[in-house]
Amino acid sequence: MKYYCMMVLTGEEKAFRDRAREIFRESYSSAVFYYFERSLYTKKRGWFEGALFPSYIFLGLDEFTTDFFMTLRAIKGFCRILPENDSPQQLKGASLDELTFFISKGEHWGISRVVFLPGQRIKAVSGPLAGYEGNIVMVNKKRKQVTVQSNLTGS
């Protein structure tokens, strides 16, 4: 199976995934759409589920055809397949390894405990992301949040 990353409208990730699954259920039964969400907490909203990769959906497909792409493009909320609609590229190397790790953990994640040093790599030691490593971009001690760079989207 080949994996691709596509951009959809922000906030429409879950709805897009559901629409795409319904549309391709019969004609492309091997097509799999992944949307990852995590538990977040803010003082204003309390606990809620939010997108791990806002605006991104991942696609697993045996063969990427023109017919498939034209149908995909017509689905409400579709923006583009990365890096460009003219030349979609399948995920390879570290990006593919990271995506398969995420797929193995499921689409919904709770809270993970991490150990890190600013300016270095971060590693989750427990929770649904146990074993995941990434590069620290920013640390917000006040909000108890760490921004980690992903290989999947390059951001």
Which descriptors would you attach to this protein?
3 helices, Alpha-Beta Plaits, alpha+beta, single chain, 4-stranded antiparallel sheet, 2 domains, 155 residues
Topology:
Blueprint: E1 2-8, H1 13-24, E2 32-34, E3 37-42, E4 46-51, E5 56-61, H2 66-73, E6 78-81, H3 93-105, E7 108-109, E8 113-116, E9 121-126, E10 133-140, E11 145-149
Can you give a write-up of this model?
- By secondary structure, the chain is of the alpha+beta class.
- The protein has two domains: 2-110, Alpha-Beta Plaits, CATH 3.30.70; 111-150, no CATH class.
- 21% of the residues lie in helices and 37% in strands.
- It is globular, with a radius of gyration of 16 Å.
- The two termini are 24 Å apart.
- The mean pLDDT is 87.
In short, what is this structure?
By secondary structure, the protein is an alpha+beta fold. It contains 3 helices and 11 strands, in the order E-H-E-E-E-E-H-E-H-E-E-E-E-E.
The CATH superfamily title of the largest domain: NusG, N-terminal domain
Low-confidence stretches: none
Query: What is the CATH class of the largest domain?
Result: Alpha Beta
Overall mean pLDDT: 87
- Principal-axis shape equals globular
| Largest beta sheet: strand ordering | 2-5-1-6
β-strand percent reads 35-45%
What helical percentage do the residues reach?
10-25%
Strand-and-helix sequence, N→C? Answer: EHEEEEHEHEEEEE
Spatial extent as radius of gyration? 16 Å
Gross CATH architecture of the largest domain: 2-Layer Sandwich
Biggest sheet details: 4 strands, antiparallel
- Note the total helix count: 3
